[in-house]
Probable RNA 2'-phosphotransferase (Archaeoglobus profundus), 210 residues
Amino acid sequence: MEEIRFCPEHGFYRGEVCHCGKKGEMILDKEKVEKLGRFISGVLRHFPERFGLEMDENGWVDFEKLVKVARRKFKWANRWLIKALVYSDSKGRYEIKDGKIRAKYGHSVNVELNDYPIAEEEVLYYGTSEEEAQRMLEIGIKPVNQTYVHLSTTIEKSEEVARLRTDDPIILEIDAKKARENGIRIIKANKYIALAKEIPPQYIKRVIKL
């Protein structure tokens, strides 16, 4: 976990030094980044109702209401620090727009995400273990503890995900073009992540052993 700093020229960033070489002002230390990050992730992905927040079908909640909830949890939290957390996140986990905030992916709550663009990639990837890969070749890829299956736009990103769970990752290559043509909705969460409710086995076109 990296600290968050503010560069007068380039805004919020994570780590000690901005890409321009300057060491900006400390905004959040590592411990607070982890605490606030876990809390915001939990509220926006898993349990908004626990804190009285209304979430619409696209995952949005009122930003100022989230700020109030966060301040009740952490006296030091404020809207500035939440924005720092969001805008410094290189993984694009969150989005702030028109007075609202949402998690871009990782939901276990039921969201439709109808305002996401359709993923246009012809091929997508899913990283997993060899044991799970064999099962998915039979029944397809289904979400586990999440609302959507999370697909990667590159082999490298799918490998990163898989290595969180196994030392010997297997990459499943998905025929995204054919899946879309046959009515499977695949949407784009950010540059590296696409989402689908499930991927039936007939769209797994290749197994890549690394």
